[in-house]
């Protein structure tokens, strides 16, 4: 019923290979590498908890098949503090209290990184629009807006 | 050191923003099997047969388990906090579509999922009942006999009752309602309804059971580790100490994860197959597991022509679904506040928890209060309209002040109802002219205010451990599910021991190391566990002082904790253990009159004001501004407290405007985020949050709970604002554009049905 394959990819900057079942999702692949930041929640690509960057573009890790990541570069939230220092976005999320239970937070953090790369000075409407594919049931939305703005300021100042 | 009232960033911030915070969702154990559940397709039926032969023979399947198999391990496998009515897997009967009937276990979850599709069950269908009012008199009986758990004194009289779906009939009688109604200038009666919804925590309900040598460890995403340990031990006939419940962070709870959810099934399976077993529900399956009560509330009031409410009658029907869960407590505890935060001399309340053939209902952020406030605050506006009085003035005239008796007879204390109302009025600039819109876009504004009794009888215990280097650990079974309790408990310890909050480590729920706690529910942790933690820290402080005196350090001087240990033990060694327990005083409500002069250790007060814009062509409602105010005593951490209030308000906004479980013959037809809409970034109005200046005199450092208060006033404030804008009254939640448009067209005398 299922088929196996070996795929090669870059995971958070390291070259890796894995024997996978072709029906596995990216989240299932990442779990095998002990990475739990991308989480399946709604299972339909609607909540953003499973957000993963594939060749720099955000995808829903609960829907995206691992086999399709062959030859690609995967970045997860765990890549952001590899230097031992939190990214400005992560720091801003802490300072602004932009989470409660934290389950959706990695998805919001990754999407905020992508937003600020493309639009370093987003308006509140830009922020709401860009992050509207991520859900937070604790509804820390006001604090998330505050965090994204603080992160934008911090990145600008560091340049 | 001023640790209280300080906006300390959450202790766990780093682990949450890096994705490394620990959730059971991510837990994998060596040799672990995944259990996937086969569920009932009928709402009510006797099980004729379950054919699992093809599933057992399928590739990769380790075992298939039915209710009868569970009985070989647990002869009487029924659980529940109020009634022992819920079988671990269905036995003899199924009572709702989606009930768990059988489980496939496999090392590969996909293999288990595939094999579930090979199971076939045959049922003799019975007539179902879905409506909470119909179920009271229906001949369709969900449970043959009522089986109270024995935990709650006011349920004992229900034992052995047959031929009824009423799982609790709470009643309150105060004054002479009949005479007061006769003397009133106006008597108005309305019926309000709320819908069934789901908490949808983003970490779906999950438990991992790990069998040991005569022991069992449960890793659970659970708000009540102490209860789970007791209930699992009771089911197994074991002493409690052979069961360990460990709880890391929760990816949201909101009441979905109180008492036993996936734990009993995971435990039974793990012991049957002698392997670790994970039961991880999908988002869809959560809708078949626990929900928020749908309700029907008939409310009738007598008022004088100058706007005093002299009598009120409340009949509340709670749709408990197929299993009672904590529903009977909702009917009782919320029931006694059904007349609202008003000073009314004559009150009758009848509150019924009713079994139906729907998915079970239990606690959801407010424990029934939002359903009640919805009704009594819509009703309050209609009373004010009847006599042409401003709704704010009407409320002020009737507000329940400190020193006056609440409906139960308990004298109100530290309940800043008037202040909360004033704060909302001020932030809404209520007395100033208001832009009412033009053309097809009409604007209006509305208010709503509610209150809630805290939980009792109840107990919390805590341990504070000072190590020889002076670092401090606090052990509690309070669960941080996002509300920030770790940080709050650390602040209390830090303030008491005069150290920094950041230097206190909070050990997560673990029944092997932390003392009993009733549960993280009902906004009780800040107050109940906060008091226990404060006592434990004070005990540690006293013991440290005694030790300092013993080694000859002069009293009243500043010395580092590690110096005391070094002097006492001659090296870095030893501990000081402080313990604390908090048990508030309480008197149960009388079974006939519902009266008690000590019904709660504290009151929560929450209110909201809404400004809305209604599109009269489409019925679409835009909430322009939402003001939320609460009395949370003196907030321990204002930043976290504000975030709790706005989060609760946004959640309630979803329950007000769009969230509802749709049913077809008992089958939930929208059990996914594709069809069940929760609030996202695009749905958030301008939010204005205020913590009113107040103190809870018996709370830790003047604080009390607030996790639910932000939900109270939201729904009626919006409905009252819609009424103000376009003159129509909606009496059912949710308020979708379709309902608004139908009401508008009906009011215009051209109902939509008539055109078709």
Fourth CATH level, the homologous superfamily of the largest domain in chain A? Beta-grasp domain
CATH-derived topology of the largest domain in chain B: Aldehyde Oxidoreductase, domain 4
Spatial order of strands in the largest sheet of chain B? 3-7-1-14-11-12-13
**DSSP strand count of chain B:** 30
First-to-last CA distance of chain B: 71 Å
Mean pLDDT of chain A: 97
Largest sheet of chain B: 7 strands, mixed
Tell me which CATH architecture of the largest domain in chain A applies here: Roll
Question: Explain this structure to me?
Answer:
The complex is a heterodimer of chains A (159) and B (756). Chain A is of the alpha+beta class and 159 residues long. Chain A has two domains: 4-78, Beta-grasp domain (Ubiquitin-like (UB roll), Roll), CATH 3.10.20; 88-158, DNA polymerase, domain 1 (Orthogonal Bundle). Chain A is 34% helix and 17% strand. Chain A has helices spanning 26-32, 88-95, 105-118, 124-130, 141-158; strands at 4-11, 14-21, 51-54, 57-60, 73-75. Chain A has a five-stranded mixed beta sheet with strand order 2-1-5-3-4, with helices on one face. In chain A, helix 2 packs across helix 5. Chain A is globular, with a radius of gyration of 16 Å. The model of chain A has no long low-confidence stretch (mean pLDDT 97). Helix content of chain B is 27%, strand content 25%. In chain B, helix 15 packs across helix 16 (561-569). The radius of gyration of chain B is 27 Å and the shape is globular. The model of chain B has no long low-confidence stretch (mean pLDDT 96). In chain B, the strands form eight sheets. In chain B, strands 3-7-1-14-11-12-13 form a seven-stranded mixed beta sheet, sandwiched between helices. A five-stranded mixed beta sheet of chain B has the order 9-18-17-16-10, with helices on both faces. Chain B folds into three domains: 13-20 and 456-582, Aldehyde oxidase/xanthine dehydrogenase, molybdopterin binding domain (Aldehyde Oxidoreductase, domain 4), CATH 3.30.365.10; 27-123 and 199-286, Aldehyde oxidase/xanthine dehydrogenase, a/b hammerhead (Aldehyde Oxidoreductase, domain 3), CATH 3.90.1170; 291-455 and 590-752, Aldehyde Oxidoreductase, domain 4 (2-Layer Sandwich). Classes of the chains: A alpha+beta (159), B alpha+beta (756).
